[in-house]
Amino acid sequence: MIKKVILSVVAVFAAWAVMDFIIHGLILRSSYEATAYLWRPMDEMKMGLMYLTILVSAAAFVYIYVRLIEPKAIDAGLKYGLLFGLGVGISMGLGSYSVMPIPYDMALVWSLGSLAEGAMGGLLVGLIIRN
After folding, report:
1. Dist. CA 89–CA 100, nearest whole Å
2. Angle formed by the axes of helices 104-128 and 2-20, nearest 10°
């Protein structure tokens, strides 16, 4: 079981890191450029810390699945991931929009991107860790 847990953490981390690059590095590039005054310059970004936060989040996500989700199945994983993504996405996207001067489309993409990342994470843990 421990090998499946480790594999799940690695898979979710990798998927979320790639999806973050697509969402933030490609899809939202022009929005970030238009709001550059809100963000650190690229040479001051703490990318090591960013990847550490993704890893810790992936580990917590997998741990919650292992300890609390029954049955261990693809559909249960997907439902868990969608619910997780919805909660994270609403707070990250629309919550940030409520207090920061970011464009609405950026907030919406943050929300939908988090929902997609949650779904992907749930699908992966559901595929890897099953009864």
Report:
1. 16
2. 160
For the stretch 28-59, pLDDT in tens is: 999 999 999 999 988 898 999 999 999 999 99
Q: Which pLDDT value is given to residue 42?
A: 85
Distance (Å, whole) CA 108 – CA 94 = 7
44 token code pair? 């001051």
What are the DSSP calls for 52-113, one per residue? Answer: HHHHHHHHHHHHHHHHH-SS-SHHHHHHHHHHHHHHHHIIIIIHHHHHS---HHHHHHHHHH
Tokens of 59: 């580990």
CB burial class (10 A; 0-12, 13-18, 19+) of residue 127?
middle
Q: Residue with structure tokens 């979710």?
A: 12
Residue spans per domain, the chain = 2-128
Please state, in angstroms and rounded to a whole number, the distance separating the CA atoms of residues 127 and 131.
10
